[in-house]
Amino acid sequence: MTLRQTYQKGKMLLEKAGIETPAFDAVCLFEKVFGMDRQKLMIHGMEPAEEAHAAAYWELCEMRAQGRPLQYILGEWPFMDFTLCVGEGVLVPREETELLVYTAAERLRVGSGAKGPWKGIDLCGGSGAVAIGLASLLPGLEISCAELYADAFRFLEANVRRLASKAVHPARLDVLSPESAAPFSGLDLVVSNPPYVEAGVIAGLQKEVQQEPRTALDGGEDGLVFYRAIAQLWVPRLKPGGVAAVEIGEEQAQAVTELFRDAGVREIEVRKDFNGLDRVVVGCFYPGP
């Protein structure tokens, strides 16, 4: 069997399973096993495929057909201009989260009118995508990356080491705990992509999403548990004029804006993602009446 035939068999398997992007997924898996991207496959497609490699490729296609996230099978996924290690126990970094990173960086630069130094914290940090992305855009930033759960924290530490992000400092702490917030003060930035899916909705999500950790998805009955904690516990850790920025679900802009406003955040803006959906709430903290 040729390389092209091997690839086609895998793609057909994914098509029959109802995978939304069978060609893309199949070529990603093919590259993982054979070391060939789409262009090389086109050039060398008529060459014979090694049986062991073909079997390994089809096995990965079977895993994907059964609903295992593509990112977990690959073991890594791109975010901004770098690649992160991912797997069971950590939320897969998504393209729309890049908007959170760019928005927070922009507001911090505009608000301070300087190049730093800045001190910040990324809450519910997961793989470290947001903190590492911010550090790459803001050379003057030192940022703690808070994650409670051991599996996710393992990926966070691995990504910080892998990308030599010396400005990112992994921290095991509970974002919902007042004791965790107490040691922090005078922050220039509080940023978060927290769990924000309503608990009752999770069972109806795509099967791939349901394989991601529930702890990274479940925002409580109304999806706002973490936003309340951020507003009550973490926004007050900002210095006057400090930036608060969070990713939100598409119907949460008003509720999160009100929580932020009640916490003393002003100059609030809601940013839409590339699909035209509300995705980021950002503002600056000014304590007092």
Automatic annotation (TrEMBL):
GO biological process: methylation
EC numbers: 2.1.1.297
Residue span(s) of domain Methyltransferase small: 119-201
Catalytic activity: L-glutaminyl-[peptide chain release factor] + S-adenosyl-L-methionine = N(5)-methyl-L-glutaminyl-[peptide chain release factor] + S-adenosyl-L-homocysteine + H(+)
GO molecular function: peptide chain release factor N(5)-glutamine methyltransferase activity
Domain Release factor glutamine methyltransferase N-terminal: start-end pairs: 7-75
Keyword vocabulary terms for this entry: Methyltransferase, S-adenosyl-L-methionine, Transferase
Pfam families found in the cross-reference section: MTS (PF05175), PrmC_N (PF17827)
EC class of the enzyme, as a word: transferase
InterPro entries cross-referenced by the UniProt entry: DNA_methylase_N6_adenine_CS (IPR002052), HemK-like (IPR004556), N5-glutamine_MTase (IPR050320), PrmC_N (IPR040758), RF_methyltr_PrmC (IPR019874), SAM-dependent_MTases_sf (IPR029063), Small_mtfrase_dom (IPR007848)
Matching PROSITE patterns: N6_MTASE
PANTHER family: HEMK METHYLTRANSFERASE, MTRF1L RELEASE FACTOR GLUTAMINE METHYLTRANSFERASE
Protein name from the UniProt record: peptide chain release factor N(5)-glutamine methyltransferase
Species this chain originates from: Anaeromassilibacillus senegalensis
Classification of source organism: Bacteria, Bacillati, Bacillota, Clostridia, Eubacteriales
